[in-house]
Amino acid sequence: MxxxxxxIGNPIHHSKSPIIHKEFARQxxxxxxxxxILAPLDGFETAVKRFQQRGGKGMNVTLPFKLEAYVISxxxxxxxxxxxxxxxxxxxxxxxILGDNTDGAxxxxxxxxxxxxxxxxxxxxxxxxxxxxRGVILPLLEQRPRILAIANRTKEKAQVLQEQFxxxxxxxxxxxxxxSGERFDIIINATSASLHDELPPLPTGIFAEKSTAYxxxxxxxxxxxxxxxxxxxxxxxxxGIGMLVEQAAESFFLWRGVRPETRKVIEMxxxxxx
Length: 274
Ligand code: ATR
Description:
Elements: E1 3-9, H1 17-28, E2 32-38, H2 44-53, E3 56-61, H3 66-72, E4 75-76, H4 78-83, E5 88-91, E6 97-100, H5 103-114, E7 123-127, H6 131-142, E8 147-151, H7 155-164, E9 171-174, E10 184-189, E11 207-215, H8 224-231, E12 236-238, H9 241-256, H10 263-271
Parallel strand pairs: 1-2, 1-3, 4-6, 7-8, 7-10, 8-9, 10-11, 11-12
Antiparallel strand pairs: 3-5, 5-6
The structure holds 2'-monophosphoadenosine-5'-diphosphate.
């Protein structure tokens, strides 16, 4: 009998998680099945419990349920606690639910291992102060950047994050224009602007020499942020496909105790035109 896993979200038809996890399972010879589950917007918990009762061993959680997944977890990893959001559930035999968040670890692995960009001692600008940004702050601070700044349209939201993470490291906050005249080595777009084909109001001249522009979103074309970075002379333009595969690999490791090879899977998704 295979072990059952699933990704749950709404919508879910676009999810690449089934392809990624099937490839990981094939590669590491794991006897498991992985499906996509569409949950009604008001039926997340019921759908999770149903899957658990069917013998499911774990789930990936995507939008818009990451906060609800955090709430229904009976135990949380430190990184899920810091993110206040859960993207991975692991069920145990006595109906407990471990909630984890592998998004930040996926981002760090993609930057440091796949892109060979070291975060330590670099100046890093994180754009956005929503759920996606919150999830990557602790993992970024753990790499000991020289500066971590958060820019957001609504400055107060960035300040809330600054306070929440103050015991883990020093964070600067401001509106985008407050950083005019500064230069950053790594700029990460964790806003949802790319989803609406929009560009946050970044000042020109904000990229340092040999900098990296990272958009956690991805699509067939460059996102508006990556197009802007290119116009500003940045050559290391990275979209979120690597992070997607790396966060999946972290979940897979949590469930199965084996670390799959990610590079080929990233290449495969890129070849498929995502
Ligand atoms: P998520 O969970 O995906 O992060 P969210 O919590 O709704 O979603 O947060 C969206 C983030 O994208 C916020 O930081 C938002 O900025 P505000 O807090 O000022 O609203 C940011 N965002 C969305 N569209 C944007 C745009 N066009 N320009 C700049 N920032 C944008």
